[in-house]
Amino acid sequence: MFLVGFASLIVAMGVTWIVTPWVIRAAERFGAVDQPGGRKTHESATPRIGGVAVFTGFVAGMAFAAYNTGLLFHIPKGVYWRALMFAALGLFLVGLIDDLWRLSFRWKFAAQIVAAVYVWQAGFRIDFISHPLGGDLDLGMLSLPLTVLWIVGITNAVNLIDGLDGLATGIALITTLTVGIIAFDRNLLGVTAASVTLAGALAGFLRYNFNPARIFLGDSGSLFLGFVLAVTSVRGSQKGTTAVAILVPLLVLGLPLMDTGFTVLRRTLRIGTRGMRTDNALRYAARNYQHVFLPDRGHIHHRLLDIGLSHRNAVLVLYGVGVIFAFAAFSLVLVKSLWVGALLFGVLAAGMASFAVLLYFRARRARRSEPVSAAEKERPRAPGSRPLAPQGSQLRGRRVYKT
Q1: Does an H or E element contain 129, and which?
Q2: Considering only Cβ atoms within 10 Å of each terminal Cβ, which end of the chain, N or C, has fewer?
Q3: What is the pLDDT of residues 166-225, one digit of tens each?
Q4: Pseudo-torsion of CA 117, 121, 125, 127, nearest 10°?
Q5: Smallest Cα–Cα separation from 192: which of 322, 82, 329, 62?
Q6: Where does the pLDDT of residue 13 fall: very low under 50, low under 70, confident under 90, or very high at 90 and above?
């Protein structure tokens, strides 16, 4: 199993390494590039369909593993992994369409929900949740909504953290290696194969994606990547109903989950605060709910840039945070105690919350201390008017916030 897993990793890495330059040239030829400007940190047009290379390497590695183990052809185990491949292919194509022609977030959410329901019926389910008093709580009918919530949440968490060169790729690489090692320890053939092949594909792609990036993951990569991570983490926690089953994937995916939680909270508070300035806050929130899902420049990695870190140093700092979460997951697997796991998760959550709050105030202070340009000083403004809101902050309601 170890030799096949290692060989699958090498195959996936080699294929991705070879294919990526071809994908770069194809993207430049057909105009599938991301232009700089606004909240974006890159300074030149960069290909944005790197998911094609990662998906190709992943498929090659899984095909090699399946050929040597019969993984996709065993009954009933093969049903699980065939379902994963079909659903991952579907999300990859949805992301590719978005990279090429742009899709509404509603279509992408709908595709994620359909893919999550599909793999749930194939057997990738959260059926039990452990509790501190011992034993496991059977979720019953709640299994479907909680599984869908987990898969859709992780998929979008990886998509949201894809904001700096190599960030999502590196964090996902750390996560997949962690999941793969834990699955190998539990003798889970399918999870090990999927994790190590995805890790190999990411390792081959990181060479071109690290700063300065020659190609981006794009939605074709981040949606596919987040989906596979979510599904394999669910499957990896299904062998038995141990007391740490649900906390291990939470720790492994701690950084993207924390960033997503802070992002949703921040955007929701922004809408609520502006809604309170109108005559009908509920109507205002209902008309502007979609702004919770729209991109902005307030993620943790953006805060690191705002306080003066270089692009590479900001990414390396977050790599370090990802490694800390990975070690916490390993420790939990070794100790096998829910109380220890809850303590680890609480300490890390409190640490990340403090880290995020500190970054917020440091970044806010840094922005206030920036000198105002002469053009900004001389810009005419109507008497009594307020400064314009930052770009991308326009919300609909009685009070108008211009961009």
Answers
A1: strand 128-130
A2: C
A3: 888 998 898 888 888 888 877 777 788 888 999 999 999 999 999 888 999 989 998 999
A4: 120
A5: 62
A6: very high
Residue 380 gets the label, from left (phi > 0), alpha (psi -120 to 50) or beta, of beta
Q: For residue 387, is it within any domain?
A: no
How far is the first Cα of the chain from the last one, in angstroms, to the nearest whole number? Answer: 56
SS3 assignment, position 137: strand
* Residue 265 domain flag: no
Q: What is the DSSP letter of 46?
A: E
State how far the Cα of 400 lies from the Cα of 150, in Å rounded to an integer: 36
| 138 beta partners | 128
Q: Is residue 400 part of a domain?
A: no
Distances (CA, A) of 288 to 107, 268, 283: 18, 10, 9
Determine if the pTM surpasses 0.85: no
Whether 358 maps to a domain, the answer reads: no
Structure tokens belonging to residue 115:
């893919």
- pLDDT tens per residue across span 128-140: 766 555 556 777 7
Q: Which of 1-15, 158-172, 274-288, 309-323 has the lowest mean pLDDT?
A: 274-288
Beta-bridge partners for 47 = 33
Backbone phi, then psi, for 303, in 5-degree steps? Answer: -60, -40
**Residue 203 belongs to what domain range?**
2-240
Query: Which sign, positive or negative, has the C-alpha torsion 243, 245, 246, 247?
Result: positive
Q: Report CA Rg, the chain.
A: 22
Q: How far apart are CA 72 and CA 63, in angstroms?
A: 9
Nearest to 126 by CA among 200, 4, 234, 221: 234
Higher local confidence (pLDDT), 369 or 89: 89
Domain tally, the chain: 1
Using left for φ > 0, alpha for ψ between -120 and 50, and beta otherwise, residue 187 falls in left
